[in-house]
Protein 1
Amino acid sequence: MDLDYEKLLERAREGLKDDDGNSERFTPPVPEILHEGSKKTIIRNFSEILDVLRRDETHLYKFLLQELGTAGTVNNRRLVLQGRVPEKKIKERVVSYIDTFVICQECNRPDTDFIKRGRTLFLDCQACGGKRPIRTKLVV
């Protein structure tokens, strides 16, 4: 009986299920951007982003309009922005929203909700119990 370490290790690995280690990782959907001429920019998967982030449509909508400096409407669960907004700029603002309003700074998990005490808005983490004030001019 040959007890070669490499052969035993290979046999043990064959018995394990294939796992890339990303089961706990939070991966929000990337905004799917569509430009209609020079007059409109559409985020096609706006509702999918809202579902994954577990946030109110109006909150993300107002944040993006304010940050991108444009007007827009929600139509058929898509966000339609006026003007041609660069795709990179939209993606950066969505990441900024996630960092500010979704991810807990203590445990880096997206299991958070808003709590309003007086005039202060707090991000309340359901995973670790952490609470932090959100410093922004956007009102929930």
Protein 2
Amino acid sequence: MLRELERIQASIREAGLDGWLLYDFHGSNPIATGLAGLGGPGVMTTRRWYYLIPANGSPVGLVHAIERHNLDALPGEKRVYSERRTLVAELRRLLSGQRRLAMEYSPACTIPYLSRVDGGTLEQIRDLGVEVVSSGDLAQQFEAAWDAAALATHREASARLYRIKDRAFEAVAACLRDQRAVTEHEIQQLMVGWFDEDGLISDSAPVVAAAENTANPHYLPSADRHRAIRPGDVVLLDLWGKLDLPGTVFADITWVGVASPDVPDAVQAVFSVVREARDAAIGLVQTAVTAGRPLAGWQVDRAARDVIEGAGYGAQFVHRTGHSLGESVHGNGVHMDDYETHDERQLLPGTGFTIEPGIYLESFGIRSEINMFVGEGSATVTGPSQSRVVTLANGGR
């Protein structure tokens, strides 16, 4: 944050704003706490705090008396309040002369991931004559963008995930060849062990789903809820992780196979549509970035969704096309979404995200997930894209 101040203020000016007002109460705004460096262990934020970054000049913080040192590491003047009347007076003084400020707000809660400022606080700020606009693209630049080192950690995590994916498919195939019973949970637990071996961490064990469970986008096997993987089943693997080091970012992939030497026609037909939708979204991103054309997250979702709807499966594509990646698997950047939300944030240089369209029928589901990174003038897929359904009876390759 200290190193970024000049760049933040330049971005505020470029956006035509008077400033960016960070606000948090009790950890309610992780974007603000992350930018201010208050999200780590040992920091108590049990009272409201504000930090105004003006387009020009020195920032000013407003903090409660019993937590007066929380903002000491940030540049600028720190003002202190205690009782509510002091807070009202100091907030009025803080915002004097400010007409248009960014906050973590999304009009009509279009992007709930960004709507971190409560309605009452917004009313209070507006009553002081301030127009509040969304900080969405500002937050992306400073909370979601990766530097070269972070990108390198993503690529390494991605390579390790692909190796684990291959090992998992090979384990299923070996059991099928040897006619040994195997369950989703057994394969999942093997993968958990391989995560440890490869130095990867995650917020969840990976998804291993078979047959009708692949039709549930958020299915997760457990010790007491799983099924056997049988010949002929569609098998879906969804795995996400990052290196067990500070400042690393996630990779997140999904591949599908079939426990058979041949791909059934119905499975192949659905996979072909999903693959075409995925590649349409990838193509749109790469074309727009290369041309220097602005592109919003909802437009990427629409590119994939149009393919699936055109093939007659629109009602079976029940989630957004992709999500931001960061130090959390769902990052603070733009999502590829014109379905669950209408994400108008722009794809910005330095940001990474998934593309993962899916079709979910009664008896099976198909999803294909890759990761993309937007650089300066180019956008790349950071790992292999699945081109065909893996036939597990032939060794899992």
